[in-house]
Amino acid sequence: MSLSFYYLLVSQSSTKLAYTLYSMTIITFIYQTTQSATLASAVTIVSVVSQLIGGSTVPLIMQKYALKSILLISQIVQLIIYSFIVVALLTIPSPVNYILLFILLGTISFFDGWSNPSRNALIPAIVSKEKLVDANSILSTTSQSLQLLGWSIGGIVIVYLGHEKAILITIVLLLVSLLSLFLLKAKAAKDKKNRKGRLETLKEGWILVFKHPKLSTINKMDMIELFGGSIWIGAVTLVFVQEALGQDEKWWGYINSAYYAGTILGGLLVWRLSQLVNQHLVFFILLGSVGVSILIVIYSVVSLPMIALILVILMGPLYQVRDIAQSTFIQNSIDKEDLGKYLAAKATINQVVFSLSVFIIGVLVDLVNVRFVYLFSGLLLFFSSIYGYFKLLKKHDSYSNESSKFL
């Protein structure tokens, strides 16, 4: 693996930790000072909407700037805004300050919407095709580990150091990320100046999402899976733990930790089997989907907490093998110049579908038994797998000789 990949890994790791800590800090600060759960939850809503808007502008930005430059601009702007947030937190709370705080939060999330598509599109530019599975598994495992670490220690940091110092730690983490990005070296992209108009540039990613012969199938599978994917948000898992398993919040924490532990284990497993996965990407995408769907269906009917915990841990490797194989398949199936546009459009669709799913799943949990919601999600995932089988394998048996360049 190239040195530039490890610089990207350090940058992503620092950013993930920073974003987790900053999210927890702002949510707890607003709740503690206002005692309003509505205002605290508005942090997530503002972040998601702003990321959607930011992500939709990525193709235009990619038309003018290199991927590394986009990441640097994004993080420099975020760093400046974090500094303003420190000042806002030190100011006596007032309605004006909360309005300013939400504006700053929205701006950070807007520029964060540039980061993920650009970072993921940068991977093939600094990693050889043969090492893509290794790279994706390392990045994914590290990301899951840091999310587990961040949410575990974030509260402790805020309690003992306070909100202002927590944001200062966030600023230090972003500085580390920036330094890593400066050291990273990526191949220069082709000159894209004035190549296409703005409208055509914006349309390119969406056309690839819906028209590309293989990636359109992947995107439709994702949409089906994401529609039931919100069963793992905190509120729904809490209801399942209490109503289906008959346990308290302590087991809610166990289930959440088991989920992250399973994904970390899965990332390590895929890394060890990277050569095999790289040779059979479509097979492992479908294996992961089918495996998770079966486990979710079983999970929906269990009553023993320990069995539920084991099932969640077992889902982790299957989720990871599907996601890592899918990421590699996408990176191999599309030109590097178009990858960022596709990822930006795909991320926008995924966020919209997931947001809609959160609402619908929430309504279903209130209207019907929570076990049914998990069963419904498992069946959706199974349907996605069957759809993928006929579209990616059966339909394309005729291109099996050609597929060696993709699989």
From TrEMBL:
Keyword annotations: Cell membrane, Membrane, Transmembrane, Transmembrane helix
Assigned GO CC terms: plasma membrane
Membrane topology per record: Multi-pass membrane protein
Transmembrane segments: 7-31, 37-58, 70-92, 98-117, 138-161, 167-186, 224-245, 251-273, 280-298, 304-321, 342-365, 371-390
MF GO annotations: transmembrane transporter activity
Coiled coil region boundaries: none
Cellular compartment(s): Cell membrane
Cited SUPFAM superfamilies: MFS general substrate transporter (SSF103473)
PANTHER family to which the protein is assigned, alphabetical: INTEGRAL MEMBRANE EFFLUX PROTEIN-RELATED, MAJOR FACILITATOR SUPERFAMILY (MFS) PROFILE DOMAIN-CONTAINING PROTEIN
The protein, known as: MFS transporter
Source organism of the structure: Cytobacillus horneckiae
